[in-house]
């Protein structure tokens, strides 16, 4: 069983959206004020779950940092369009340095190494922000570093920048300061959401096995067996409680999936949240909406 856990989901929104969150957000979730990040023009609001993870509404309120600024890991989101753009994983039993060393060691193991996709992880970089109550919280972010590999997909499948694998986020201050998951007022949501069930990742069908191998090494988890290995499901933990979750790597085969991948690129496509109750009519899984960002977020009993 892997010690890697879901940490948080990054949902990029523009300024007007951020300042006036739509009804699909406010009707379904309790929103907690976040704060402003140090060193760059960004801020956030959070939807915190009882499992210790959270959904981050991330906004550039001014010009994003340059891609040359290596001390600002969030610079990779500067070219992204609104929507689900990234997700973070963590390991609350190991430091950022220990985690990245273990992942890079797995990614260098022959004969498969990084499956020819051109990925390794850089050194952890410190980040921080000040909360509304003045409390300063800090963490370390470890981002993937991309290079041209034998099987790296063409640039046209990285529409607005390459972000096809998650990053790591490790707390250096108390986690409950960053993620107050013990506060029931903040973790109780009208839709009944209690945590992350799965992050789904879309990849080209001819590279499904390669991406599955890559994710297995990053997460430190083997795929759960299925008849045809489509899709690949990887076990992952959550920061609080005994619940287990998943990362699902699947081929873009349906018309919706192909359209999504060609418009937004390879990578994170859908978020599935665990809920305490079924939806209308007893549905076991339903999206929060039929179109837009809300159509990529699902509730699952």
From TrEMBL:
<dbReference type="Pfam" id="PF13468">
    <property type="entry name" value="Glyoxalase_3"/>
</dbReference>
<dbReference type="InterPro" id="IPR025870">
    <property type="entry name" value="Glyoxalase-like_dom"/>
</dbReference>
<protein>
    <recommendedName>
        <fullName>Glyoxalase-like domain-containing protein</fullName>
    </recommendedName>
</protein>
<dbReference type="InterPro" id="IPR029068">
    <property type="entry name" value="Glyas_Bleomycin-R_OHBP_Dase"/>
</dbReference>
<feature type="domain" description="Glyoxalase-like">
    <location>
        <begin position="7"/>
        <end position="206"/>
    </location>
</feature>
<feature type="region of interest" description="Disordered">
    <location>
        <begin position="276"/>
        <end position="301"/>
    </location>
</feature>
């Amino acid at each position: 069983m892997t010690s890697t856990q879901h940490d948080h989901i990054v949902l990029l929104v523009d300024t007007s959206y951020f300042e006036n969150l739509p009804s699909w957000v406010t009707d379904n979730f309790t929103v907690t004020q976040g704060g402003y990040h140090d060193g760059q023009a960004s801020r956030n609001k959070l939807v915190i779950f009882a499992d210790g993870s959270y959904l981050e509404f991330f906004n550039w309120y001014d010009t994003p940092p340059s891609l040359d600024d290596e001390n600002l890991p969030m610079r990779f989101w500067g070219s992204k369009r609104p929507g689900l753009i990234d997700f973070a994983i963590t390991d609350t039993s190991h430091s950022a340095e220990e985690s990245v060393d273990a992942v890079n060691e797995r990614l260098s193991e022959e004969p498969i190494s990084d499956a020819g996709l051109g990925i390794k992880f850089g050194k952890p970089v410190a980040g921080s922000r000040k909360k509304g109550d003045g409390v300063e919280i800090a963490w370390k972010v470890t981002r993937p570093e991309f290079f041209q590999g034998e099987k790296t997909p063409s640039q046209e499948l990285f529409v607005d920048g390459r972000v096809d694998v998650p990053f790591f986020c490790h707390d250096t201050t108390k986690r409950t300061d960053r993620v107050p998951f013990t506060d029931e007022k903040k973790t109780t949501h009208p839709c009944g959401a209690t945590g992350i069930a799965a992050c789904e990742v879309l990849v080209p069908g001819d590279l499904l096995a390669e991406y599955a191998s890559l994710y297995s090494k990053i997460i430190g988890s083997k795929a759960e067996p299925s008849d045809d290995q489509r899709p690949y499901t990887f076990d992952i933990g959550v920061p609080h409680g005994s619940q287990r979750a998943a990362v699902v790597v699947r081929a873009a085969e349906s018309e919706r999936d192909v359209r999504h991948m060609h418009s937004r690129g390879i990578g994170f496509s859908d978020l599935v949240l665990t809920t305490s109750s079924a939806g209308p009519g007893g549905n076991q899984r339903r999206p929060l909406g039929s179109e837009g960002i809300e159509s990529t977020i699902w509730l699952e009993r």
